[in-house]
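Table S5 (text form). Sequence records supplied for joint modeling of the two-component complex.
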Amino acid sequence: MNEGNLISLTRMRAGQSGIVARIQGGFGLVDRLNALGIMPGKRITKISSMIARGPVTIEVDRAQVAIGFGMANRIIVELD
Amino acid sequence: MRKILLVGNPNVGKSVIFSRLTGVRTTVSNYPGTTISYTRGFLKLGEEKVEVIDVPGTYTLEATTEAERIALRMLETGDIVINVANATNLERSLYLTLQLLEREVPVVVALNLWDDTKHRGIHVDLERLREFLGVPVIPTVAVTGEGIKELVENIPKATSPGIPTRSRDERWAAIGTIIDQVQRVDHRHHTWLEHLQDASVKPLTGGIIAIAVLISAFLVIRFIGESLIAYVLDPLFNELWAPVILGLSNLMGGSGFLHDVMVGKIAGGAVDFVESFGLLSSGLYVPFAMVLPYIISFYLVLGLLEDVGYLPRLAVLMDTMMHWLGLHGYAIIPTLLGLGCNVPAVLATRILESKRERFIASTLISIAVPCAALQAMIFGLVGRRGGQYVVIVYATLFVAWVILGTILHHAVKGFSPELLIEIPPYRLPPWRIVVQKMWMRIYGFLAEAIPIILGAIVVINIVYSLGLFDAVANLTAPVITGLLGLPKEAVISLVIGFLRKDVALGMLAPLALSAKQLVVASVVLAMFFPCIATFVVLLRELGLVNMFKSAGVMISAALITGAILNLIL
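The corresponding structure-token record, covering 649 residues in total, follows.
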């Protein structure tokens, strides 16, 4: 998905930063991501993504979090 | 007796604080999910003796893994909670803190990793934080012991401020307000460790780092293990202990049942420590001179990787591959632990989310991940015939791991959850902690393995002297000889493998096997059935029905793999 500055985490480039706009998923997913500090309004920086639909690593609140590809795909970020 | 619980996010140092409070040593590492069960200890609070419980880490009071469910159940039983929070990441820690404050249990907050805030440019206004939370907040550096005394002094001041239950969004809003008021972060440049951190999770540099780390780990383990054997233990046994054994053998008349149990079969006036099978010969040589050196070197290297914080990064790199096996990347941690001992490995599968993953991971570990004791014997016995045979054994186990994982992934109902983990910063671990953990694990090996090894040797001698082996051997000959191409006596080794796999492989030494037969026997022994210690843990963790399923997979996989090797080698 890509509307204006909105882009899914998997399609961001390494090194890009932005603000989480929304998480497209049920309560279970939202809860687990929230617990790691990933929620709308949070500023994140993408550090890397593994090849072959591997996990995405981001920095949020000065800590690194690795997120499986499917989950990362549901995190929509507004780029700076 | 009142109970104090240590509750907090994963990897904030609860276990280190626990050790500081109680003097009880626990395993601590630098990755989320080291503590998968609870540990108890005691602390004197003035005149009162209280129980302290180290609870597995959890981000919220809504559990997603088995370890978190254990944490939740424990929480029901506590009288006081020490909430261990991460001073370098208040945002994340406070969610659990607020949830705890909504309950009716007195709380005191230990703000751990306090020393890290200084060099990371994080400023926390402790007074304001105390006002917001309404409970004591004590900065601590558990690794050095800073702040522990103050923490203990403040336990009696723990209170329950009685915050009304809030919704998730209300809690996050409250955290936003608190952070704005109490925390200030200076901008600063990346340190070299942080650059290395980022490089470790990028596809190209990460891959290179992973290969370099794994190869050096392997080389260091072999170097230390082999050096200990060649320069310390073999000389000790050959120069000092062998004459004692020979003297004892003469004293006992050179033969007889008791002689054979104690010093084993002595042929040609020399002690063969591997083949003699007496309590004082093989019974000491196998655990101390063949296995212990590799236990020491393996746990030293594993401990370093754990404490530096490398393992979660390996999980990220391996994630795609682990998904082929119905698992996600974090399953690599129990798998690596399994290369030391399968027992803690099966327990460590509790960091995985679903029953399905735990079944697949436990089964794969029991089948295709040989423990350090068995590996030491493989290096010792198979290695003598040539390094290529050792390579064949490992390659076979690896291929079996991948194929079986793929089959289980498709055969077991359900889906594989995705990886979602916090990656801790790299830390240079204090040597004291690395050595302490290594010693705990070595002690664990000695305490658990030695009695079983000695017991197994007595059993072997009794059964041999009664001639019971022939009956069993003849009965199973079609499978052992026909299918696997091994001498029929090799079945005894498989039976003893249920007690200890290192001793079982040692039993094959006197059978004069060809290199090919030794390879087949090593692989079958590794895969066939778990040792009794692993069996008990599997039974408890998987339940009876799944244990039977798992055992079925093991036996068929071992026989099929053994038969294929017998055909193609």
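Note: The longest strand of chain B covers residues 39-45.
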